[in-house]
Amino acid sequence: MNNQIDRRIDPVTASVIEGALQNIATEMGHKLTRMAYSSIIRESEDFGAGIIDGQARLICEAKQSTPLASGPLAGCVAGILDRLKERGEEILPGDIFMHNDAYAGASHVPDVGFYLPVFHSGELIGFTGAMSHVVDIGSYKPGSGGQVYAGDAYAEGLQFKALKVYEQGRRNDQLWHMVRDNIRLSDVVIGDMEAEIAAIRIGAERYLELIEQYGLEVVRGAYEDAFDSSERKMRAAIATLPDGDYTGEVTIDGFPDDPNPDYRDLPIRVTLRIRGDEVTADLSGTASQIPDRPINIPFKGSVDCAVVVALKSVLLDSVDHGDVPQNAGVMRPISIEAPSGCLANPIFPAPTMCRYTGGIALSDATMQALSKVVPEKVSAGTGNGGGMVFGGVREDGSMWLHVELFEGCYGGRCGMDGMDAVDVLFANTRNNPIEDIETHNPLRIERYELRENVAPAGKWRGGLGTVKEFRMLTPGSAATEADGHKHAPWGILGGSIGATRNAILERESGESINLPSKFDFFQFNADKGDKFIGIGPCGGGYGNPRDRDPKAVLQDVLDELITPQMAEEQYGVVITPEMALDEKKTSSLRAAS
């Protein structure tokens, strides 16, 4: 790219318009969360909202949204345009499209998006879009996650492929009747969908107001300049790296108990080919798709988000680069290749609903590849959180469902310990407050705390997962899509590997059942009083543990993150019975190691 910065409009006006566009997307996000019925949107903020131009390029996104839901917005618009072209259908003012096609931009079928075409003086100038995870999508078992035995895409639930829920302003009541009649908790799901529609309507209204104020060409010039600015920053960051091929590989559990070896211990491999100011992520060596299990990762909407988020978070770290807007320009220097039919580029109708943990592993493998060239900028292996769906029937006969997104954690990083109890990489959802869970569901949270005496060792220790106990107040069941019960997060530069996750069903009778990382609804039913316990993973350590500040080790002991014995064995730090640092014995022990 030419080093000369050519702007379409003056930078002050561009900055004002860019801020206004960002505010529109943020207002869309607030509108959606405040109107949503389900906690996964209202509290966890598992949604995306933004503005896309007429060429299916992302202009801006709501900053409070998760990358996994905002990243696919532009791809969904592209998928809608392609589908309409195939069908010979037009886009008209007043149309609103519903779309969740995992093979045409959407992340997976529970992420249902709505897209409103924006017209100005008769010209289609773009779309406002919102996507959110609904609690049920009419799949073969309750809930919108943990459908780990769905045999194909049709078993995962209703597929909406560029369907007009409003046509020239008129509501398509027959379509809405079909949706309501084929999903569980229809009032909640329809309520969430209507919140999305309200969000895109206010977004379109605000967008047109901005255009009326400044003129279409000026607004276009502003976001085109923003595209170029993001592109320049990404290219400049890539250009600082030495040319070469750098590979990272993370193995996911898959289905460890399955007799078929093709279903377990699945590698996800990323080779970053850096050439000048461009990078290609080559996913050759990734496991083949599983045709009848929904852990395949859609290429458009999930794979691209996983790779780009990892690259942007490392190469354009906000500490060093400030706020670099996420828009179409960031993508320009990045290309992604994946063999057709692999886990990260499945062929329809391979199911994809549970692509979440595989996508986290893909981001993690990208991070590991970057560790070969910029180890000072990456974290060690991340703890893969996963999710669980609880459900059952209340005493009054009504059905309930709750989608819980378990926190993961980050590995240690140069200069800082790993972050504890947070969702990671391209997911980035929020934890669900206990008060909200207990208010809306027959569940009681009896324990919610960081794991103790397991912190992975390193000069900067790995982040900690949580322990969370859910007591069932009515009979019910649960399903989960998780990983990392077998393969722990990786350490870096002498740091230890992290800790695996676990899940337990504890009967009120005292019986305890270790649960697999993936199980289906009704596979492990619970009686009233039984508890499901999620034990989160811990991230990998960074650097030689013997280089950790002894005072930091003492603080870990005082915080009950490790024991005095672990301090001595892993860090060479001696803690006295009075819980003080024995500097003399510590120096002697470290000198002898």
Could you list some keywords that capture this structure?
single chain, alpha+beta, seven-stranded antiparallel β-sheet, five-stranded antiparallel β-sheet, 21% strand
Kindly, what is the distance between the CA atoms of the first and last residues, rounded to a whole number of angstroms? 52 Å
Main beta sheet strand tally, sense and closure: 7 strands, antiparallel
Estimated structural class:
alpha+beta
* Overall number of structural domains: 3
Percentage beta strand: 15-25%
What percent of the residues sit in helical stretches (DSSP H or I)? 25-40%
Mean pLDDT: 95
Q: Biggest sheet: strands side by side, in what order?
A: 2-1-5-4-3-6-7
Query: What's the count of strands?
Result: 20
**How many alpha or pi helices?**
15
Regions with little confidence, pLDDT below 50 for 5+ residues: none
Q: What best-fitting shape do the alpha-carbon axes yield?
A: globular
Instruction: Report Rg.
Output: 24 Å
Describe this structure in words.
It is a single chain. By secondary structure, this protein is α+β, with helices and mostly antiparallel strands. It has 15 helices and 20 strands. Strands 2-1-5-4-3-6-7 form a 7-stranded antiparallel β-sheet, sandwiched between helices. Strands 14-15-20-17-18 form a 5-stranded antiparallel β-sheet, covered by helices on one side.
SSE topology sketch:
Layout: H1 11-35, H2 39-42, E1 47-53, E2 58-61, H3 67-70, H4 73-87, E3 96-99, E4 111-120, E5 123-133, E6 163-167, E7 170-171, H5 173-181, H6 186-214, H7 216-239, E8 244-254, E9 264-275, E10 278-282, H8 299-315, H9 318-321, H10 328-331, E11 334-337, H11 356-371, E12 387-393, E13 399-405, H12 434-440, E14 443-450, E15 466-472, E16 476-481, E17 502-506, E18 512-515, E19 518-519, E20 531-535, H13 550-558, H14 564-571, H15 583-592
Parallel strand pairs: 10-11
Antiparallel strand pairs: 1-2, 1-5, 3-4, 3-6, 4-5, 6-7, 8-9, 9-10, 12-13, 12-16, 14-15, 15-20, 16-19, 17-18, 17-20
